[in-house]
Amino acid sequence: MRKILKLVWLKSLQPLGIFSQFIGLSRLSFKSSLEVSPFPLILRKLLDASAPVNPLAKSGLAPEIEICIPCTEKDLILLREVIGSAIITSENRVGSIRVVVPHLQVEIFEQHLGNQFRHHNLVVISEADLLGELIHLCISVAPHTRRGWLIQQIVKFMCVLTSEYKGVLILDSDTVLTSCRTWLRGDQTQILMISEEYHAPYQQHFLKFQESSKKLKAPYRNPHVSFVTHHQLMQPTFLREMFGGYFNWKHGLERWIIAVKFEGESPACEYHCYGTYMVTNNPRKIRFARWGNIAIARSDARISNGSLDSVTLRTNFPSHLSVSMHAYLS
Fold this sequence. Notes:
Elements: H1 2-13, H2 18-23, E1 26-27, H3 41-50, E2 65-70, H4 76-89, E3 94-101, H5 106-113, E4 122-126, H6 127-131, H7 134-141, H8 147-161, E5 168-171, E6 175-177, E7 190-192, H9 200-211, E8 221-222, E9 231-234, H10 236-242, H11 249-258, H12 270-281, E10 286-288, E11 293-295, E12 303-304, E13 307-308, H13 310-316, E14 322-324
Parallel strand pairs: 2-3, 2-5, 3-4, 7-10, 11-14
Antiparallel strand pairs: 1-8, 5-9, 6-14, 12-13
């Protein structure tokens, strides 16, 4: 069965990618309804299962990347393994690591991490220092209970937009990577994963944001899937382009924030926006890779004595490529 899936993948998905040839992208008019019709879960599972694990393997000299992890104290116990797994599994050399935390928690994180990742130029910085005045815009837009959620998304964008590297691996602070990948190669081709989840408000927010962005190119299409994968390689060049260009990206980011309408619990997603933008604007720079994530309760992760037993984690989930230990599952 797997051989058949691989043949289908190779024949149907190249050279333009999974959506443009295998599924096809329906053109959307910004003046029309924002209704979306996602592909059924079984098809999203099939698309994920049939994707190669490491499509950019042996791509020659891969550029250095940066890692960015927004974090709060609730995930501190996982952080060393989250960072370590990202370094070990990356076939792109990791040049620096930024851990971004609430202002009052900087010292706690610095003491916890110590000098363990000094060879990778790890720094702990505060959300306020990274975001500047944008943090006030986030606070004004989001209700009190959702401010941290929105700020973490903008932290991820800002880490990419201000990076000096060609690629930034954004990583949720509760997700351990267990499979080696080449994230980015020298010609700006990167891997992208789709998630099994589909949440319509994410696409609706993306379209609202695009309606307000006059300088962005191309009519946007509905990929019928989402990219909420808990980790994602983002390229500063393309993200700045999405937000309006090298000199205007800050205004575009402000529009993105303003477009977030808290009529539901989760009205927007940074991962989905970047993935949709790349699929519809730069499909030749994308190679789809398997997601293969599993979400588990922290009680199943064998956390003891203040540390995560990563060996047990990898042994217990050998067929998965990443493990997310969401606090709400515990």
